[in-house]
Design a protein that fits this description.
heterodimer; A: mainly alpha; Helix Hairpins; 3 helices; B: mainly alpha; two-stranded antiparallel sheet; 2 strands; about 5% strand; globular
C-alpha cells in the first residue's frame, strides 16, 4: 500500500460517517436503527484511529481499535438481548413509546 | 500605712450573699435567705466600722491592690481599692443605711413573692455600690457604676408582671445609658491625654501640669457631669427617678434616695482636682444643681402620690449637692449627701410603713388622721420632715445651711444660686409639711369600710420600725458632726474631709480670679486663699434660712390644716400653673415627642419597613426567587428524552470543537 491516499480523506470519510451516525441516532425511532447508528459512530472513530496509527507509524492506535471492536461486540450482544427482551414485553421497538420511567 | 485592711472583703461579702441567694435562694427557707443577706451586709458594716474606729484619721490615703486586671501595653488597670476620708464616709453611709434597709426589708417584703430574688438583688447592689465607692481607677468605678445601674433596673422592675414597673426599669436603664456614654468618653479622653485611668494618677497629672489648658479639662469634666446627671437624676436626665418609684419602697429608700443616686456627687467630689481647674464646668454643675433643685421642688408641690413627692424631693436635694460641688464646696456637698441619706431613707421607710399598713395605698388624698393610728411612724416621719425642711436642730438644717452659705460666698453668680437655693428651701419646707399634714392630720379621708380589713393591723413589725427609729435619731443628730463655727460648733466634718479636698494646685477661686484678669490658668500661683469666713453673714443667712423654712411650714399649715378643703379644690383644678406642675412641666411628653417618638418612628419606618423588610427580607426573597427562576429555566433541558440529551451532547461537542479549532488561531 502506498502513501497515495492523504490522511485528510480518511478523516473526512470518518467525519461523514460519524455525522451520519449522529443524525440517524437523533432522528430514528427504531431501537435497532439507533443501535446500528451507534455502531456506525464507533466505526467512524475506529477509522480515525487506524488512519492516525498509519500516519504516525504507531501501533497503539491499531490496538485501540481492537479494544473498541471487542467492546462493541460485547455491547451488541448485551444490547440485542435487551432489545429482544423489550420487544417481548412491549411489542414495539419505537423509543418514543418506551417511556415507562418518564412522568 | 503598711497593715492591710483586707478591703476586698467589704464588697466581696455582699457578693457572696448575692451568689448564695441567687443560686440556691429558691430552695432555701426564708429564714436562711434573710440570714445570708443580713449577715453578709452586717459583716461588711462591722469591717467598715472597725476601720473607722481604729484608723479614722489617715496620714495618707490607703491603697490596696488585689490583682492586675488589664495590662495591655501602656494601659494598666488594677483591681485595687482606695481608702481615704471621703471613701470612709461613703462606706459608712452605704453599709450603715444599707444594713438598716436590709433589716427593714425583712418586714416589708415578708409576704411578697420572690423574697429570695429581692435579697439577692439587694446584695448585688451593695456589692457594686461598694466597688464604686472604693474603686481606685475610673474603670473600676465604672464597673460599680454600671453594676448599680443593673441592680437598680432589676429592682425597679421587681414586680415585672406589672407593665408600668417593667417600663420604668427600662426607662431608668436607657436614660442612665446616655449618662454612661459621657462617662465612657471622658475615660477615653483621660486615657488618650493622661495615659492612665487611675483616679489619683489622673489628678496628680493635672496638678503637675498647670500648663494644661482648660479646654481639655472642661471637656472631660463636662462629660463626667453628663454621667453624673444620669446617675444622680439631674436635669436633663432626671426623668427616670420619679418612675423608679415603681420598685418596692425599701429599694426607693436605699437605691433611689440614699446611696446610688449620690454616686454622681461622689464622683464629682472624687475628681475635684479636675473640676477645680475648670471654672466653666463647675459653674455648669452649680447651675444644673440649682435649677434642678428649684424645678423638682415645684413639681413636688402638687404631687399626690406620697412616693412621688419624695422622689421629686430627692431630685431637689441632689440638686443642692450638685450646687455645693459646683461652688467647690465639696465637703458641704458630701455633708448634705450624708444627712440626706439619713433623712430621705427615713422618709421613704416611714412612707413604706404607711403604704404597707394601708394595704398598698400611696395616694395622699386617701390618707389623713394617721397620727393616732401610727404614733411611731408619725414621730419618726416628723423627724424626717423637720430635717429635710431645715428646722433646727435637725440634720438638714445644718447641712443645708452649710451648703447655702458656701454658695453665697462663691464669687461666681453665688448670689443667684443662693437665691434659687433659698426659694427651693421654702418650697421644700412647704411640700414636706403638706405631705405631713395630708398624711397624719385631719380626719381619715378614706371611708373606714375601705380600710377596714387593715384597720386592726399593727403599724408594722419591729423589723420595720426599728430601722426607722434609728434613722430618725440619725436625722436628728447626724448633722451635729458638721455644726458650723458660726453657730458655735466646730465643724468636725469639714475638717475631717479637709485632707481629701486640699489641693496643692491653684484653687477654684484663684483660677477664676486669674481668668477674670485675662491670665491663663497656668500662671496662677498660690495666692492668698479666700477671705476668712464672715461669721456674722453666716449667722444672718442661717437665720434667713430658718425663717424661710418656718414660713413654708406656716403656709402648709394654713392651706392643709386650717382649710380642709384645699386638697379637694386642688383636685378640681386642672389648668394654669397648677396643671403645669401637676403634669410635671410635661417634660416626659416633651422628651417623648422630640426624642423617643422620632427614634421609634425612625426605627419603624427606616429600620423596620426599610432595612428590615426591604433590605434584609428583600435580599432573602431575591435569592429565593432567582434560584426558583433559574430552576424554571433549566428544568426544560432535563426533558427525560434521551435523544434530546444526545442532541445537546452533539451540539456541545461541536461547539467545543469550534472553539478549539477556530478561536485558538486568534
Amino acid at each position: 500500500m502506498g502513501n497515495s491516499v492523504p490522511i485528510a480523506c480518511y478523516l473526512g470519510l470518518a467525519a461523514v460517517l460519524f455525522c451520519i451516525g449522529i443524525s440517524a441516532f437523533l432522528i430514528k425511532r427504531n431501537i435497532i436503527t439507533i443501535f446500528m447508528s451507534i455502531e456506525l459512530m464507533l466505526n467512524a472513530v475506529n477509522l480515525t484511529f487506524v488512519a492516525f496509527a498509519h500516519e504516525w507509524h504507531q501501533l497503539s492506535g491499531q490496538i485501540f481499535v481492537f479494544f473498541v471492536m471487542v467492546v462493541a461486540a460485547a455491547e451488541a450482544a448485551v444490547g440485542l438481548a435487551i432489545i429482544i427482551a423489550i420487544f417481548r414485553s412491549r411489542e414495539t421497538l419505537n423509543v418514543d413509546q418506551i417511556n415507562l420511567m418518564k412522568s | 500605712m503598711t497593715n492591710s485592711f483586707h478591703l476586698w472583703l467589704i464588697p466581696a461579702l455582699p457578693f457572696v450573699g448575692f451568689l448564695l441567694n441567687a443560686l440556691f435562694g429558691r430552695r432555701l427557707p426564708k429564714s436562711a435567705v434573710t440570714g445570708i443577706a443580713l449577715l453578709t451586709t452586717a459583716i461588711s458594716l462591722v469591717l467598715v466600722a472597725n476601720i473607722a474606729l481604729q484608723h479614722a484619721s489617715f496620714s495618707s490615703p490607703h491603697v490596696e491592690r488585689v490583682a492586675t486586671w488589664i495590662a495591655a501595653g501602656p494601659l494598666h488597670v488594677d483591681f485595687s481599692f482606695y481608702l481615704d476620708q471621703l471613701t470612709l464616709v461613703m462606706l459608712l453611709v452605704v453599709t450603715g443605711v444599707g444594713f438598716l434597709i436590709h433589716i427593714y426589708s425583712v418586714g416589708y417584703m415578708a409576704h411578697e413573692e420572690g423574697y429570695w430574688r429581692f435579697f439577692a438583688y439587694l446584695n448585688l447592689f451593695m456589692f457594686f455600690m461598694l466597688v464604686l465607692v472604693m474603686a481606685e481607677s475610673y474603670l473600676l468605678m465604672f464597673v460599680g457604676w454600671e453594676g448599680v445601674g443593673l441592680a437598680s433596673y432589676l429592682l425597679i422592675g421587681f414586680y415585672f408582671q406589672r407593665d408600668s414597673a417593667a417600663n420604668a426599669g427600662r426607662k431608668a436603664f436607657v436614660v442612665n445609658r446616655i449618662g454612661d456614654f459621657g462617662f465612657l468618653v471622658a475615660m477615653f479622653l483621660m486615657l488618650k491625654h493622661f495615659g492612665t485611668l487611675d483616679i489619683q494618677n489622673v489628678m496628680q497629672h493635672i496638678s503637675a501640669h498647670p500648663e494644661l489648658q482648660s479646654g481639655l479639662l472642661t471637656g472631660i469634666a463636662l462629660l463626667l457631669v453628663l454621667g453624673a446627671t444620669g446617675k444622680s437624676a439631674q436635669i436633663p436626665l432626671y426623668v427616670w427617678l420619679p418612675d423608679a418609684m415603681e420598685g418596692p419602697t425599701p429599694v426607693s429608700a436605699l437605691i433611689h434616695a440614699a446611696t446610688m443616686v449620690t454616686a454622681g456627687v461622689y464622683m464629682i467630689a472624687r475628681s475635684h482636682v479636675l473640676f477645680d481647674r475648670s471654672p466653666t464646668a463647675l459653674l455648669m454643675v452649680a447651675f444644673i444643681g440649682a435649677i434642678t433643685a428649684f424645678f423638682a421642688a415645684t413639681v413636688a408641690l402638687v404631687q399626690t402620690d406620697i412616693k412621688r413627692v419624695l422622689a421629686y424631693s430627692t431630685i431637689s436635694q441632689l440638686g443642692y449637692m450638685f450646687m455645693g460641688c459646683g461652688v467647690a464646696a465639696y465637703s458641704a456637698a458630701i455633708f448634705h449627701l450624708v444627712t440626706h441619706a439619713f433623712f430621705k431613707a427615713l422618709l421613704f421607710l416611714a412612707a413604706g410603713v404607711i403604704i404597707h399598713a394601708l394595704g398598698d395605698e400611696q395616694d395622699l388624698r386617701a390618707m389623713g388622721g394617721l397620727r393616732h393610728r401610727m404614733p411611731v411612724t408619725f414621730w419618726t416621719m416628723t423627724a424626717g420632715v423637720f430635717a429635710i425642711s431645715g428646722i433646727p436642730p435637725f440634720a438638714g438644717f445644718v447641712s443645708k445651711g452649710v451648703d447655702l452659705y458656701a454658695t453665697f460666698v462663691s464669687p461666681h453668680d453665688g448670689k443667684i444660686l443662693w437665691a434659687l437655693g433659698l426659694v427651693t428651701a421654702f418650697l421644700t419646707s412647704f411640700y414636706m409639711f403638706r405631705l405631713w399634714y395630708l398624711a397624719f392630720w385631719g380626719e381619715p379621708r378614706k371611708a373606714p369600710a375601705e380600710t377596714h380589713e387593715h384597720h386592726g393591723r399593727r403599724e408594722g413589725p419591729w423589723s420595720m420600725l426599728a430601722p426607722v427609729a434609728v434613722l430618725a435619731i440619725l436625722s436628728l443628730v447626724g448633722g451635729w458632726i458638721g455644726w458650723p463655727p458660726a453657730l458655735g460648733g466646730t465643724d468636725h466634718f469639714e475638717r475631717y474631709l479637709e485632707p481629701v479636698f486640699r489641693t496643692e494646685a491653684p484653687t477654684y477661686e484663684q483660677v477664676s480670679i486669674a481668668m477674670a484678669m485675662g491670665q491663663p490658668a497656668a500662671d496662677v500661683s498660690l495666692q492668698p486663699a479666700a477671705p476668712p469666713p464672715d461669721l456674722r453673714t453666716e449667722r444672718l443667712l442661717t437665720a434667713i434660712e430658718f425663717l424661710v423654712a418656718l414660713s413654708g411650714w406656716f403656709f402648709a399649715d394654713l392651706l392643709y390644716r386650717r382649710r380642709r378643703d384645699t386638697i379637694a379644690r386642688e383636685d378640681a383644678q386642672t389648668g394654669g400653673v397648677y396643671g403645669l406642675l401637676k403634669n410635671k412641666y410635661s417634660i416626659d411628653e416633651l422628651y417623648s415627642a422630640i426624642i423617643v417618638q422620632p427614634l421609634t418612628a425612625f426605627a419603624r419606618i427606616v429600620l423596620w419597613r426599610g432595612v428590615e423588610e426591604h433590605l434584609v427580607d428583600g435580599a432573602g426573597n431575591v435569592a429565593a426567587e432567582s434560584a426558583q427562576g433559574g430552576g424554571q429555566l433549566v428544568r426544560r433541558i432535563q426533558s427525560g428524552n434521551i435523544r434530546s440529551y444526545a442532541g445537546w451532547l452533539a451540539l456541545g461537542a461541536a461547539a467545543f470543537l469550534i472553539v478549539v479549532i477556530y478561536l485558538e488561531r486568534f
